[in-house]
Amino acid sequence: MPTDPGRPAYHFTAPAGWINDPLGVTWHDGPEGGRYELFYQFNPEAPLWTPAIRWGQATSPDLVRWRDPRTALEPGPDETGCWSGSVVVDEGRPVIVYTSVLADAPGMGRIALAEGDAEWRRWTRDPAGPVLPAPEPGRGLAHVRDPFVWRDGDEWRMAVGAGSTDGRPSVLQYSSPDLRTWRADGVLAEPEPNLPGPGGTVWECPQLFRLDGAWALIVSVWDEVPGGVACALGDYDGRRFAPRSWQWLATDPFYATTAFADSRGRRCALSWVQEADAGDGVRAGALSVPWLLAREGDRVTVAPHPDVESLRTEVQAALGPASLAGAAVVVGPLAAHADVDLRADPAGGPLVLTLDEAGGRLLTLVADPDAAELRLTVPGRPDARTPLHPEADGGLSLRLLVDAGVVEVFGGGGVAAARLRPPGGELTLAVSAGAAGAELHRLVIHGMAPATG
To answer: pLDDT tens across 211-224, in order?
Structure first.
């Protein structure tokens, strides 16, 4: 089998084939203690997406050490594919709520159920067939998919991603007393005429949840191609979500963000890190590290989940304070799997980090307070950008999670990612800033242990 030097060690990947949307992350108690169940869309037969996509599943005692990857649900005789959805627990039994698609109408998904056993190992489709064979008529819909289900008092609510024949995105809501009989509640969310929003033609993978005393809605914005993940804080009255403002939570290569609660009840998320070709003909795609979400005013912030730190190994470098006003601070050699934690005062100018190997430049990161932007540049690829919010004293704290062919960067409450050329050897990190008085307060680099296998 061809080797894959770009395969991440602590970002989850399928053993082989294609992986996309993470789904239904759930913490539950079992006979051997509590554990997380992770579900995801995958094609084990080739590193390509297929309409005949299925659900994969893996298990972990935390949110990073995933074991026993396996098939949870594959297309039945009456459907072409098992597309995205969510997982709930109903009277102690886990239930997958998913998009069942047919070859002649893949855009118009049917909502179907599969019930799991007490061990979350075997999944059986509801013998009655789809519980929502088609949306209510008269809406002019061209796309319906990705049910997200939650409990609200005595009823279940379901948000479904949608798009109309005239290219207008929306999220629909349905309610049910038993997960099987659903009534249409109308439009949960759609573009507001007087509020700037994310646009797109379909709002996929909707997620509605409480976050630090407010309601938050996440949508993945489809416009012929994946266009990023948008989020809004707002008000929800049980039928309609009214956003106060929108933000980009994550941009390309992130997509299909799924929100969930960890074992302590904290609101978390995982995202798909898109990858068209891993270069080995064996696999494509990865999942992000787990994120911790928080509310800061009318903004949702993102940080690595504390479980990520449990993978740290030896300290590869530790230094600071050091002046950045002259030559760059250069650290190396570093391993291809590392956790870089730094704090600096760029003195009002941009802070620049570069990652190099013997074959040349892998990554340039520019944290620019004046432009309020964090920008990642990889040779031959479009830049990745995220808004940057410096700390009150003007300082910047950055966290780079380097994992062979993928890097995630967290700073100022935002996150960005890039796919890297697979490194052929040891890495060198350089930190620089052009402004007089710029200073590196702290730089600590840990190695990272593999999380799967």
So the answer is: 999 999 999 999 87
CA 79 from chain centre, in angstroms, equals 27
Phi, psi angle pair for 6, to nearest 5° = -90, 0
Name the nearest CA neighbour of 119 among 6, 29, 254, 202.
29
| pLDDT tens for each residue of 303-330 | 999 999 999 999 999 998 999 987 899 9
Element holding 172 (H helix, E strand): strand 169-176
Could you list the beta-strand ranges (E) of 212-321: 214-223, 225-236, 241-250, 254-261, 267-273, 283-284, 286-287, 291-296, 299-304, 312-319
Give the CATH number, domain containing residue 66. Answer: 2.115.10.20
Domain that holds residue 183: 17-304
Six token digits for residue 288? 């992000």
Task: Tokens for 182, please give them.
Answer: 């659903």
Distance in angstroms (rounded) separating the CA atoms of residues 148 and 158: 5
Q: Tokens 């590193």 sit at which residue?
A: 47
Q: pTM for this structure?
A: 0.95
In a domain, 249, yes or no: yes
